[in-house]
Amino acid sequence: MIQIGIRLHDVNAGLAEAEQTLEARAAKAREEGFSCVHLALAKCISGVTFDDAALTEGLAAYVRRVFRDSALDVAVLGCYLNLAHPDEAKLREFQSRYYGNLRVAALAGVGMVGTETGAPNAAYKLDADTHTDAALHTFLRNLEPVVACAEHFGVTMAIEPVWNHIVYNADRALEALRSIGSRNLRIILDPVNLLGMENADDRERVIGEAMEKLCDHIAMVHIKDFVRRDGKLVSVAAGTGEMDYTAICRFLKARKPYIQATLENTCNENAVAARELIERVYEAV
Questions:
Q1: How confident is the model at residue 246 (pLDDT cuts 50, 70, 90)?
Q2: pLDDT in tens, 79-103
Q3: What one-character-per-residue DSSP string does 118-186 give?
Q4: Residue 133 burial (CB < 10 Å; 0-12/13-18/19+)?
Q5: pTM for the whole thing?
């Protein structure tokens, strides 16, 4: 009952330009057995700057047609911009970009726009202030009008907890959800993104607690793996690192029927193997 998809810009990556059109990528994803995609427009269509001017009704109609013809769902429209950016003008630009993506999502029949939760600096990097209450309050203040826009368009706005970002664990995510208090604010669960070198050895507890605490709010899942390299966690395709997906698949099977789960950090050579691995584990639990 799980619906396995893929991050579309990982499909046909590195191939000739003709193989990297939206149509070619979508057709390949379907050919490889995926049912849905994570779509980041700027990473899937070259030569276009997806600023406010480009986020038109025509673009939405084009997206809707391409994925209808490919028999694929767009699980989420990715718009990963820093809503805690310290520059006021840049922040307003980013908020406006979210408004445009929410409008395109609604018109294209995409139910969700997804984002991470940023850092309180222009570099979008973990620093001494990233996990503070002050950073969280800044992010939530700037997220609030974006969620209001999602409510207006009838679209889900989903945030993704990431260890290196402001919303870095399940408790922080719950605090964010309660503070905004909107049914249109949901969670994208990426288990690997909850991990850093500090807690990777305790990952079963960290991920288990996140699944339990956030269960009612999880709208979709990202699936990848990790390896440790040069003192850092490096994301890789499912099945090529340290992750065991048994508990995750058991949770999804029991609590999240028909959820969409998109693979990340795959390449042309291992995407199908990663999908088949998750399918085997899911069927076995």
A1: very high
A2: 999 999 999 999 999 999 999 999 9
A3: --SSTT----TTTTSHHHHHHHHHHHHHHHHHHHHHT-EEEE---TTSSS-SHHHHHHHHHHH--TTEE
A4: exposed
A5: 0.96
Residue 25 · residue 281 · CB < 8 Å:
no
Q: Please give the Cα distance from 160 to 187 (Å, whole number).
A: 6
User: Is residue 49's pLDDT more than 90?
Assistant: no
Token pair of 232 as six digits: 């850092």
* The pLDDT of residue 160 is above 90: yes
Diameter of the chain by CA atoms? 51
Compute the CA torsion angle 128, 130, 132, 134 (nearest 10 deg). Answer: 120
The β-bridge relationship of strands 185-189 and 3-7 is unpaired
Q: Is 55 exposed, middle or buried (0-12, 13-18, 19+ CB in 10 A)?
A: buried
Euclidean distance between CA atoms 138 and 85, whole angstroms: 9
Name the residue type at position 135. A
Residue type, 233: L
Closest CA to 66 of 21, 112, 119: 21
